[in-house]
From TrEMBL, chains A, B, C, D:
UniProt cross-references to InterPro entries, sorted A to Z: Pept_HybD-like_dom_sf (IPR023430), Peptidase_A25 (IPR005080)
Catalytic activity annotation: Endopeptidase action with P4 Glu or Asp, P1 preferably Glu > Asp, P1' hydrophobic and P2' Ala
Full protein name: Germination protease
Organism: Halothermothrix orenii (strain H 168 / OCM 544 / DSM 9562)
UniProt entry keywords in alphabetical sequence: Hydrolase, Protease, Zymogen
Enzyme nomenclature, EC number: 3.4.24.78
Gene Ontology MF terms: metalloendopeptidase activity
Organismal lineage: Bacteria, Bacillati, Bacillota, Clostridia, Halanaerobiales
Cited function: Initiates the rapid degradation of small, acid-soluble proteins during spore germination.
NCBIfam families in the record: GPR
Record family assignment: Belongs to the peptidase A25 family.
Length: 337, 337, 337, 337
């Protein structure tokens, strides 16, 4: 969720989003049709809509400003509700998608050994909307320390899982990716799963969308500050990223206000026409101007965010358990925690 | 902080604020000059600006949509910083203003008895920006239960203080004012001090302003939902309200965006002129339109709100201690907690 | 949980317990057989043992130092485990016993009206083992404020429930019973359910026992400090008390140590015999001596108490929901929260 | 604080303590005089007593069951009080002792470079008495990430400090020492300061004693389970350990009960004499018997532990700031947080 918190007014006037599905929509709007290098498939299931975006090549990556790879988005109104049955179904859907994205056979250290998975809860536990990662770890079944001592028949349905909430740079003085890399070098896991809060463009998606991707996390893309990424390149093992949007960028509202204002009936067609031809740079300057008092300062998060973080954390943590351990199902999940 | 959380799109398009100083500024802007029935005095002190607004009569009350009474606003950049020395000075300034607003002699139950003060921490402890009241009570010195047993020489520098965080309707199923009134009827305090989070119009004021008023709290004024007020009329004893803005209304940003857009250089003078004459009703409809996806849903609070609530809660709780107990000063405050 | 926290060495050397089942056991040990005025029935069900103690008259009340009334104890190893299925069964057992103890018809304010129930979460949320009551309220379905506006068909399966966590004397400066009474006088509920942490004699019972009684809560019985009770006499409506032991008294361990030491093989039969004849008063003085450095100072609570309070709070809060609302069952409980 | 939580009845019947000062007292009691290989100096200062124990050689290490090195104990009643002035003095005393134990010149990576210090907050943030380390980090000034970018004149009075709360094995599935070592290998600090909760023998010392040592932390010494130590040997850089006792072992109370019972007047001189000659092994068996129902289960921590952890955490975190940064003093400490 770095982009939200590190705002360079002029760069940031681009409507940034962590969600590939939003980035793709913006690209479609810009190009007016298909985005070359990006394939999109949608599927409607009970309780949710699943969108699978493949960024196929560098052209696609540049078009939507996301690295090459797979982005799965699960959208559901129920994520934000309090219906536990619906939550259980979402846990199931999420676990299935996550499980499908992980190639367990490919990451085995040895044909007879289960891979060790390192789950990282990113974000700042002292800032409610940024605390999803640490919260999700509360619901994670950590097994690595028990696994080696367990008899083979018990091990069978489980995989060794370890976990860490590394905090944020301001709390530790160390780049998050460095802490993770340090642990990776000693513990030698075979896969990293990183859970993080995201910034979305649309308030509709707040706490209603789960994104799973196999591209890792590249904080600060498009921002001035360069931070070490958490991905296969830096960690030397695959990195799956799981994120849920919990904040929106102030620019979204201003942008929408401007567009609606200008497209609206308050203006005559010629006025509208004239405005359309004002240069992009000029518009951006104006928006930066309007936004400057709010930038880097305002958190725009859903009402009830304190509770939402807990609820969504339970779904994410629970779903990771189901995806990682063969013997755990959404039905018996509660027996394991 | 009710207005923020109960939004009726059409009513709420009025730029609502809990701060008298903002309401007065809006009225000045509207009338273009003095607001009849309202007197304003400003004072610059070290570290802070103090504004004293007197709503003198019904005309003034209607002009700024606040009950007749005194509203003292302390504004300081330091409230939001982490400089403890500056916090100590603000505690002192706040305590002095609060102490001046309380007429201890008038509320004594008997010439020889100190008045009992009931401090109420309003708001929802499960929603970070709404949790200022409950947090402030953590720093309050509660003495009523010790007072009666204390020997006269110890009592001398202290006053009997009791406290309650009554929660919110959604948590208790009981109107907050009813809980307070129930306790008041049994405990018979002589003054209520109610601490609450407020909604401001300007993000600049978030966690940078303390408002003290002797008019109590009248939740829901201007909103559809009518809630029982917490004021002299309902409680039969004086009620001092202390508030700090922790959220801003989404409408503020849209409103500012519209104004800046229209006043800006993008439009020709004739366009601007024409826009100025578009009816208010039409403008409101447009704004409600722009805002509708965000209403009742988005919390806009300052970054670092979790920490700010703690810091400001300490200043408020500490300042109330200094104001209420003759023997407590900003210097020796820490000895008492 | 007052007895634990207010220790008068000499009085407290009596092995105090909040649990009727333990008090009865002690009486049996003393008398060597039946305790007149007290009837006891045990029932073994799946996952739990239920003990129903009736204190029939004043003689029984004095024998076990508990007021006349019914005390139901549900004991289960599963309360302390993390098996959600077992938790669901315990929720069911608890809800059934609680429901049976409430005579809903008798407390209706009018033949056509459902009674209003006021659930009180006693204890100090800042002291982990004392925070059970406030925590249980997090899982309570509060309906009173919605009930009046709900259409009759929705009301049918629900009852109006309100709730408050009144804090403790040290936090509020007001006796807990006074706060409750104030709210009762304004809200006019028909039944109070008070949830509290208890002190047990045996560590085996910590977080493994639920006690339900219809005698209310009489804090400080046997202690120097007299506090206002929360019972039918003081509140003018029935009071059901629900408690779970979360601390043990230090005296328990010392007492056990002494007994084992003396009964053990270290001593010759004649030594043991002699010791048996040492006066009770002398033994108490010795124990008070041994205990004095620990009294009023040490909390002895189970390992993992932070998590236990949350888990048990969910079972208690959930069970109260099932007991109070006809439409809520252990199966659909999660849909209501 | 491992020994407390991992109890092997027979081993643990030895009265274990994390405090060198208690271990030394026990050895003195056993030997009846001086303990060879251990030197002890006491100093009384305002507000506190400082004991400096040097374990000089292997003989001393075995005698008190602590590694060779320096152990400084600061004892003060004020640590547990709420007097902020006294807390400030303790912060000063603690910072001075800590600063003296660190040889900053010896750990400089280069004559012109300040050493980087890595502060580790050990323990489980979900178990109140074990949460001291994580809490202390809340008050730590973390500078490493700012240090490199800061201009030389700002750097001058500060040193680069980074921090991590690595959790516990049960939360992460990774040995704490492994996480720390991983970070150490990547970040290359020059000194580790590890803050932890300790187990004491005497309840008098709970939250009243700070121990500083240069021997690091060797969890599990004397216990069955072997855990990787955090010391110069394992980390390749010096490790300073800071600890405050927050729990006592149940065995302490039983042991005291037995001793007082036997030494007391209840027994005749001949009985006492006979008891003295009962074999140690027999006594231990008896104690293990008495204790078995409580072992591994009961936490015995001071009343008000939730608040104590916060208060002591502030003193420790603040004192570390003063010790590490030349420009920070107890007086201006609050300006830096």
């Amino acid at each position: 969720m770095k982009p939200y918190f590190n705002s360079n007014p002029y760069n940031n006037v681009e409507v940034y989003t962590d969600l590939a599905v939003e980035a793709h929509n913006l690209a479609v709007k810009r190009t007016g049709g298909e985005v070359p290098g990006v394939s999109v498939r949608e599927e409607i299931v009970e309780n949710a809509k699943i969108t699978r975006i493949e960024v196929l090549n560098q052209q696609g990556a540049e078009a939507i400003n996301k690295p090459v790879g797979t982005y799965i988005t699960i959208e559901s109104q129920d994520l934000r509700g309090q219906n536990r049955l619906a939550h259980d179904k979402l846990t199931d859907i999420f676990a299935t998608e996550l499980g499908n994205l992980i190639n367990f056979d490919a990451i085995r250290p040895h044909p007879n050994l289960e891979p060790t998975i390192f789950v990282v809860g990113l974000g700042n536990w002292n800032a409610t909307p940024d605390a999803l990662g640490p919260h999700a770890l509360n619901y994670l079944m950590v097994t690595r320390h028990l696994y080696q001592q367990a008899p083979p028949e018990l091990r069978k349905g489980l995989r060794p899982v370890c976990a860490l909430a590394p905090g944020v740079l301001g709390l530790t003085g160390v780049q998050t990716a460095e802490i993770i890399k340090g642990v990776v070098q000693l513990v030698n896991p075979d896969l990293i799963i990183a859970i993080d809060s995201l910034a979305a463009r649309s308030t509709d998606r707040l706490a209603r969308t789960i994104q799973i991707s196999n591209t890792g996390i590249s904080p600060g893309s498009g921002l001035g500050k360069k931070r070490l990424a958490i991905n296969q390149e830096t960690m030397n093992i695959p990195v799956i990223a799981i994120g849920v949007p919990t904040v929106v960028n102030a620019i979204t509202i201003v942008n929408d206000a401007m567009e609606q204002l200008i497209q609206g009936e308050l203006f005559s067609p010629t006025e509208r026409e004239r405005f359309r031809h004002i240069e992009e740079a000029e518009k951006k300057r104006l928006m930066a101007n309007i936004l400057s008092p709010y930038m880097g300062d305002l958190i725009m998060s859903p009402k009830g965010i304190d509770e939402l973080i807990k609820d969504v954390g339970r779904i994410i943590g629970g779903g990771v358990n189901v995806a990682l351990h063969p013997d755990i199902t959404p039905e018996n999940l509660s027996l394991y925690l």
